[in-house]
Every structure is written in C-alpha cells, then in structure tokens.
Amino acid sequence: QVGLKFLEYVADNEDEQWLTQNSKFGQAAAPKEKPKITLKHLETVLDTLEKNTGFETIITLFQAEQLVLKRIPELAQMFPAKPKAGVLALKHVLQDVYNYWVQKRSKLKRPLLRRFWPVTASDDTNPHLVFR
Length: 132
Hints:
Layout: H1 13-21, H2 39-53, H3 61-71, H4 74-78, H5 90-108
C-alpha cells in the first residue's frame, strides 16, 4: 500500500477521550506498570486500518491484526499472546481498537481519512460542504 509510512490520521478529542478512559489499556488502566497504548499507537492503528480499507468493504479483524502487527511490531512485545498476571492479551487489545474504529466509521457513514471521501458535486448547494 502506498503511503503507509506517512501518518495521515490525526486523533481527535473523541479518540483521546476513548483512550484516556479505557480501563484495560488506556491511561485509566491500573496499575501503573500495565502496558498502555499511546495516542501515537492509536493514530497508527487507525491510519493503517483506513488505508487498507479505503472505499472498500471494511477489512476483517483477522486482516486488521496482521496489518497492525506488521506496522507496529512493538505491540507484540508490550502485550502477551495470552493474558497473564492482569495484562490483557494482544488479541483483545486489537479487538477493542478494531471495534472502536468500526463504530466510529459507521457513525460517520464514510471513511475517516478525507482522501477517501466522495467528491462533492460542483452544483451541490449544501453550505456544510463549502470547503471541498
């Protein structure tokens, strides 16, 4: 995929709030020694999922796991393959982030990256689409 190295997705307030309030692997996770996903990790995961979906049907969770681990291999070092001593398994972390992405994309009813949005017709008079 072209452009996978360049991060296009920028986290918004909703992303920050979701991550901060996440009690499993976000900033709200206790104890402090627990591995936590950073905002940069979240941006990279969402960017990867968006670029590999684009206009197409949303990729599967299995495909998402493979792509994310290829792009951010350190997640496999942060989270074990199987849960242990109160640390969430990597599969569960990726599933939570994947579900968050699907829900966010469904709520918006279009891709999160603007370059995948449909082109607005030049005769469209909707004032909310003025900046094309």
